[in-house]
Amino acid sequence: MRIRFASFKLAAALAALLSLASTSVLADKTYRLNLAETWGPNTPILGETTRHMAAMAEKMSGGRLQIRIDSSNKHKAPFGIFDMVKAGQYDMGHTASYYYKGKVPNTMYFTTVPFGMTAPEQYAWFYYGGGMELMEKVYAPHNLLSFPGGNTGNQMGGWFRKEINSIEDLQGLKMRTPGFAGEVMAEVGVAVTNIPPGELYTSLERGTIDALEWVGPALDLPMGFHRIANYYYSGWQEPGAEVQFLINKRTWESLPEDLQEILRVAMRTAAYDMYSESTHLNSLAWQQMKEEYPDVTHKVFPPEVMDALRAATEKLLKQEAAKDPLTAEIVESQETYLKQVRKWTNISDKAYLDSQPALD
Amino acid sequence: MRIRFASFKLAAALAALLSLASTSVLADKTYRLNLAETWGPNTPILGETTRHMAAMAEKMSGGRLQIRIDSSNKHKAPFGIFDMVKAGQYDMGHTASYYYKGKVPNTMYFTTVPFGMTAPEQYAWFYYGGGMELMEKVYAPHNLLSFPGGNTGNQMGGWFRKEINSIEDLQGLKMRTPGFAGEVMAEVGVAVTNIPPGELYTSLERGTIDALEWVGPALDLPMGFHRIANYYYSGWQEPGAEVQFLINKRTWESLPEDLQEILRVAMRTAAYDMYSESTHLNSLAWQQMKEEYPDVTHKVFPPEVMDALRAATEKLLKQEAAKDPLTAEIVESQETYLKQVRKWTNISDKAYLDSQPALD
């Protein structure tokens, strides 16, 4: 009886501990996610961002959340991220929303829009001005969650071998510029071509094309365009290009709440950090270009050219908005927000920058 | 014997489980930190930032990291955060580094400097250009860690009842403007006064002062200055004011690695988010001011005035740098970085903003 009683107490304690232990075992379960990125291996800035995000998530979770990253050499589908994550072939992706315009036209608006918002304006729109909710509306029907994934900063208008002094100088000009900006360029008479990245330098050097647009100093420098084109024009087509993290909805829902929050915050910080790193590396690369190649000259398109490009952009956006109510809602939200936030930018950063002495 | 053997097996299992359970209990230990903020209760933007940070940290840690926040009505020492966190009276603080200039002169440079960097430029400097390392050098001797804690964006130059058309218009002008900017203003002849926030409106209305500088539209709107002063000048004195999180070093070292990372990333995200929220709320408030008070006019100081303020700033910074090698190192780092990054800002965001049509 005494023994049975002792055994009973031991058994009860055992049961209680088993319950405690199984809770801990569950809480300590390791979640392994696979992420496919559009970028090739060791891509500066963009590729660093996925690794930075994964490292923060792993450290914050004490190793419970592990994210393996496949670059495009592994999965062979740089522009198939949307489909692979939707199908659950990968849990996550890192890509640019506007690559999927052909499949889901409304994805376009969440990277950047010609004559749109700068990076700080766009982050304000995403997080406080309704942008996240609109992005969710576009991605939810595909069982995807989408989050801002890093900003390149204001992209440059491109490298030109001749100065552009009028709209006539653009007409018939052979230029590599992809996506929506390419459509706008075509509207004003540019002979738009697309050429694989590996052939860009030779094409520009041999005159197969007269001009091209890539990203900004940090990513343009290793391409070497500054050695064969003197005029580097300020941009209008991607004033704050944000890439995206995509997550399969079932993967997201399989994560406990703490890991969801760790993942959400790691992505958010990595995205902001990419903008800071882009600012840093663009400034370094621009300095280097100018030191090594004093012939490289910064230019802005004359007002006549900017007006024509702006009119073409507005025409095409109006056409898109007429096709679909959700497109109309997104375009309206961005235009209204831009007008409001730009007035503030104008009396703050713009007024301040305009009042400072020239540095060159 | 059988009973003893069964008991032995039970006891062994029990011991194993106890060991497992005690590990889990340790891992599940709740850390409760106390944070003192400079701000009063329910302060918009600044006070939201501490709560946002604490909420992220709690959720990411599954409740293991809990941060209680005391506003200034509780601790009664809005400008004593540095001392209280250093002494361990509080584990953490949320304040502006430059409030402690009188105690540790080098703290001044980590909030903002007249004619210094904008928020995106300064984040690039902090995280990629050596700023964090310099801030650590200043805070480490006080057993404090310091992290960026949120940016107000570009602060406005202030509310003036008369237009400023020349440097003579500033001479003898009675203006409330505290800190280093006040010293610069005094250099060009302004009669600088400091007045408690609660008396500012009445002082301006009754002409005890002719002008004042507060923050920007979002925090100026509730103060009501736009009802009694028509001229709202763009700023030069705080082009990207960053507040700070301070942490007591022993508190930091008492946290396990995963919670350190959770805290670090929560602070980093909350800081960036404050900049996005400031951008959003400043744009809303500026729109509201203009709609409700059409007499409110945006102004920029004439170049002559800006040149005088810039020369006075450079003179004072040179004086400070001569006093202490670490000051010289910080001033040199900021000036060199500004020159590099501003050249990039000028060909990207500034060129883009300058090319856009006026919105008013």
TrEMBL record, chains A, B:
One protein family per Pfam: DctP
Any one Gene Ontology molecular-function term assigned to this protein's record: metal ion binding
NCBIfam families on file: TRAP_S1
One Gene Ontology cellular component annotation held by this UniProt entry: tripartite ATP-independent periplasmic transporter complex
Binding residues for Na(+): 214
Domain of life: Bacteria
Binding-site positions, substrate: 155, 176, 213, 238
Record's keyword terms, sorted: Metal-binding, Signal
Keyword Metal-binding set for record: yes
Name of protein: TRAP-type mannitol/chloroaromatic compound transport system, substrate-binding protein
InterPro entries: DctP_fam, SBP_TakP-like, TRAP_DctP_sf
Biological processes, Gene Ontology terms: transmembrane transport
Species name: Marinobacterium lutimaris
Signal peptide positions (record): 1-27
